[in-house]
């Protein structure tokens, strides 16, 4: 079966990194989109259960690609022309730095690099975008103070071709709404 699912429709490729920041909100947005495949980094697989999210449950809504090969074999799905948009959300400061400097050594960073080379628009919801970030850790709320290097990397990422950086789930939702309109698609009105 092609990545298009045999229906001829192009899909969203949604990459998950090892961030828990707004993870549940990001997956809720992905669930509302039509035709989404999830691409998980090894770190995402570690973090998901910490937030009560199980891969088996995600499979009920999404096709799942996992980072189990050294050469990021699932990236080849981009070459089938089955994807119109790449979303990296939420993106750790590590992923942002790698993408900003052209390093592709995880499934999400490889997806980002190859999507850009193919001219596929990328939406990146970066976690460390403000001087103070309050986020939910697995067992409590924490206050983080991103360093200048993290903030600088977000700015550097903004200059990458075919990339739009978002700083909140509200901005991500607005960017997805815009992308859906560009594609003459709409949000799902039900969870099925």
Record keyword descriptors for this entry.
35% helix, globular, 192 residues, two-stranded antiparallel sheet, alpha/beta
Characterise the protein shown here.
The structure is a single chain. With 192 residues, this protein is an alpha/beta fold. The protein is 35% helix and 21% strand. The chain has seven helices and eight strands; from the N terminus they run βαβααββααβββαβα. Strands 3-2-1-4-5-8 form a six-stranded parallel beta sheet, sandwiched between helices. A two-stranded antiparallel sheet has the order 6-7. A hairpin with a 4-residue loop joins strand 6 and strand 7 (141-144). Helix 4 crosses helix 6 (148-158).
Q: H/E order of the elements?
A: EHEHHEEHHEEEHEH
- Mean model confidence by pLDDT: 93
The largest sheet, given as strand count, sense and whether it forms a barrel, is: 6 strands, parallel
Shape: globular
Lateral arrangement of strands in the main beta sheet: 3-2-1-4-5-8
Percent of residues in helices = 25-40%
State the helix count: 7
Total count of strands: 8
Distance between the termini: 21 Å
What is the C-alpha radius of gyration, as a whole number of Å? Answer: 15 Å
Judged by helices, strands and strand pairing, the structural class is alpha/beta
User: What share of residues are in beta strands?
Assistant: 15-25%
Low-confidence stretches: 1-6
């Amino acid at each position: 079966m092609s990545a298009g699912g045999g229906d001829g429709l192009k899909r969203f490729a949604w990459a998950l990194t090892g961030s828990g920041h707004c993870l549940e909100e990001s997956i809720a947005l992905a669930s509302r989109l039509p035709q989404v495949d999830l691409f998980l980094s090894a770190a995402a697989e570690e973090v998901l259960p910490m937030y009560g999210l199980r891969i088996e449950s995600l499979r009920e809504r999404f096709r799942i690609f996992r980072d189990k090969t050294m050469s990021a074999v699932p990236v080849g799905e981009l070459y089938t022309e089955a994807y119109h948009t790449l979303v990296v959300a939420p993106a750790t400061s590590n992923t942002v730095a790698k993408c900003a400097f052209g390093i592709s050594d995880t499934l999400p960073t490889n997806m980002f690099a190859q999507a850009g080379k193919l001219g596929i628009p990328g939406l990146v919801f970066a976690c460390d975008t403000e001087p103070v970030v309050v986020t939910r850790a697995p067992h409590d709320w924490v206050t983080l103070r991103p360093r200048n290097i993290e903030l600088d990397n977000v700015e550097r990422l903004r200059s990458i071709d075919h990339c739009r950086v978002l700083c909140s789930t509200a901005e991500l939702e607005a960017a997805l709404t815009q992308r859906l309109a560009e594609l003459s698609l709409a949000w799902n009105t039900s969870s099925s």
